[in-house]
Every structure is written in structure tokens, then in C-alpha cells.
Write a structure and sequence with these properties.
It is a single chain. The chain has a single domain, classed as Vaccinia Virus protein VP39 (Rossmann fold). It is 42% helix and 21% strand. The chain has 9 helices and 7 strands. Strands 3-2-1-4-5-7-6 form a 7-stranded mixed sheet, sandwiched between helices. Helix 8 runs antiparallel to helix 9. The N and C termini lie far apart (44 Å). 44% of the residues are buried. Bound molecules: S-adenosylmethionine (SAM).
């Protein structure tokens, strides 16, 4: 992975492109949890899925392979979109899965063109869970489903956890608080699959490996100090706070308006 502007401070997206160069799933789910999500959301051969901020589109590709679902993904990262297209090719699902590069917040599908509309791990595109539900809702009909992948507090976080994670206490809710946020946004929680400590570790520990490898291969790179700082902070914050205080899951919602 070569940074676009070697002289500049790497962007958050570029740091993630390095950290997640080996990942297929860019969130704290394992492949088994991804397939479990497809099963609980009743994804099948006639299901049309929209995935905003799809990353490497592993969910669309695996659901096409396992369930025969059709999918459209949108992601900002050219690196991730290229990987998504390679993966669709590799799994033989190019005819089922299309991936576009662009700002998902600006993506406007035909009304009710999909059965399932998802935003997994990127609800900042709609300014939070409620805004992202508003963004996704027009894409599905009244019997469609919305999937939101979102962190939640497992325990009330101490101030030092908020500082380390770089968030405010209200940026996330606990699980009942998330239910309230979904209700307020006009979305009825009908199912969910939650990550666990093991799957969080798979997401973060695999980042540690990829970042260390990049640092070993780019010791003279002007961005090396920034990449090392990112690696050190990500690793320590996960071990000290994220693992204990933050949960993560995908929530299956039915629009109520
Ligand atoms: C945590 S990853 C989740 C990716 C994918 N949903 C998954 O779970 O594997 C966040 C993704 O959001 C993408 N992203 C961030 N801002 C975006 C935007 N405005 N439009 C489209 N994609 C965006 C990033 O490129 C990255 O792929």
C-alpha cells in the first residue's frame, strides 16, 4: 500500500486502508456472524441488498455466494472498492454484486428498489444511527429491512475511556438506549447479531499485524511516525477500554413510517 501523498499526514481512511489490508470484513464480525446475520434477516435468492459504505463488500459477496442474494455496494475508498471487485470475481458472484466508488451519503437509489438496505460500521454518513436510518429508508419498501451496524456501551465508560476512544458519552448508547434511538427514528428492532470479545479481537489484532508489517516494510517512509502512533493508540485503546466498555452489533430494523 503506497500513500497517495507521501509528504502529507496520512488521512484516517489511508490509515485504515493500511490497517485493514488483510481484512475481508472491516468490522468486528467473523464470517460465521456475517452469515448468521444473513440468515436472521431472511436473505434469500430474491433478496436485493443495498450496502452503503460497504468496504470490501464481503457481506454482499458472501450473501450472493451463500444465499443467491443480489447486491449493490457503495464505498468512498478506491482501495476497498478494488478489493471488493476482486473478491466478487474470486467468488464468482460478479453477476450478482455491483460496487460503486463514491460518497454513500449522496447515493440516491430508486425508491423501494431494495429489500434490505444496510450501513454497517459507518453511521457517521448520516450523522448517527437516526440520520442513517433516514438515509436508508427510501431504498426499501414498507416490508423491507434496514441493517445498522453500530457500537454500544456495555458499561458506563469512565472519562479516560472517552478520551482514549475520542468520543463523547452520548456518541453511543447502551443497548436499551439504542432501542430508544431506533424507536425515535421510526424503526422497529426485529433481530440482531452481536459481536463478542473474540470477534472484536479478530478485527483489531489483525490490524496490529498489518500495521506492524507496513512499518517493517516502510521504515524510511515519511508517514511511518504517524502510522506507528495510530498503531500504538489503536492497540492500547482496544486493550485498555474498547474490549471492556464497547460492544458492537448489527441491528435488524423494520421501518414504521
Ligand atoms: C468500518 S468500515 C465498514 C465497511 C463495511 N461496511 C464492513 O463492515 O466491512 C467503514 C467504511 O466506510 C467507508 N466510508 C467512510 N465514509 C464514507 C462515505 N462518506 N461514503 C462511502 N463510504 C464511506 C470507508 O471507506 C470504510 O470502507
Amino acid at each position: 500500500m503506497v500513500l497517495a501523498d507521501a509528504a502529507a499526514v496520512p488521512s484516517t481512511l489511508e490509515l485504515h486502508e493500511i490497517a485493514e489490508s488483510d481484512h475481508r470484513i472491516l468490522d468486528p464480525f467473523t464470517d460465521a456472524q456475517l452469515l448468521e446475520l444473513g440468515a436472521v434477516a431472511r436473505v434469500g435468492p430474491t433478496t436485493r441488498v443495498l450496502d452503503l459504505a460497504c468496504g470490501k463488500a464481503e457481506m454482499l459477496c458472501r450473501w450472493a455466494q451463500e444465499f443467491g442474494a443480489r447486491g449493490v455496494g457503495v464505498d468512498l475508498s478506491e482501495v476497498f472498492v478494488a478489493a471488493a471487485r476482486r473478491r466478487a470475481e474470486e467468488l464468482g458472484v460478479c453477476g450478482w454484486v455491483t460496487v460503486e466508488c463514491g460518497d454513500a451519503a449522496a447515493y440516491r437509489p430508486e425508491p423501494a428498489a431494495f429489500d434490505v438496505a444496510a450501513c454497517i460500521g459507518a453511521t457517521w454518513i448520516g450523522g448517527g444511527a437516526g440520520g442513517t436510518i433516514d438515509l436508508l429508508r427510501p431504498a426499501v419498501g414498507s416490508d423491507g429491512l434496514l441493517l445498522i451496524g453500530e457500537p454500544f456501551w456495555r458499561e458506563p465508560p469512565p472519562a479516560e475511556a472517552l478520551t482514549a476512544l475520542g468520543v463523547g458519552a452520548d456518541d453511543f448508547a447502551d443497548l436499551p438506549g439504542l432501542l430508544d434511538r431506533f424507536d425515535a427514528a421510526g424503526a422497529d428492532l426485529v433481530e440482531m447479531v452481536l459481536a463478542d470479545e473474540h470477534s472484536w479481537d479478530r478485527y483489531v489484532a489483525a490490524q496490529c499485524w498489518a500495521l506492524r508489517r507496513w512499518l517493517d516494510d516502510h521504515s524510511d517512509d515519511p508517514a511511518a511516525a504517524d502510522v506507528r502512533r495510530f498503531r500504538d493508540a489503536t492497540r492500547r485503546t482496544h486493550l485498555a477500554y474498547q474490549r471492556r466498555f464497547l460492544g458492537w452489533g448489527v441491528f435488524v430494523l423494520r421501518p414504521t413510517r
